[in-house]
Amino acid sequence: xxxxxxxxxxxxxxxxxxxxxxxxxxxxxxxxxxxxxxxxxxxxxxxxxxxxxxxxxxxxxxxxxxxxxxxxxxxxxxxxxxxxxxxxxxxxxxxxxxxxxxxxx
Length: 105
Description:
Elements: E1 2-4, E2 7-9, E3 11-25, E4 35-47, H1 48-77, H2 91-103
Antiparallel strand pairs: 1-2, 3-4
């Protein structure tokens, strides 16, 4: 738990997967240009609320992807099939179909 300026934040700690070394630079003129080992970072800290919010964002993104996939599938199902083959009908059949269409039968 971290307290600052009258506020309290709950922190999660997790071990780091890789080793991180910290070095400090010499402050005096005699140590100028020298780096000295200062320590190791072995854990990371994260605010618990931020981690929970990030998990919520991931879940919302997954739900959005599923909704878009479903909408795309529905759109494809409603699509039209165009054929490029032409069939030759006798002229009598075409005229008969045209008359039926025009007469509304």
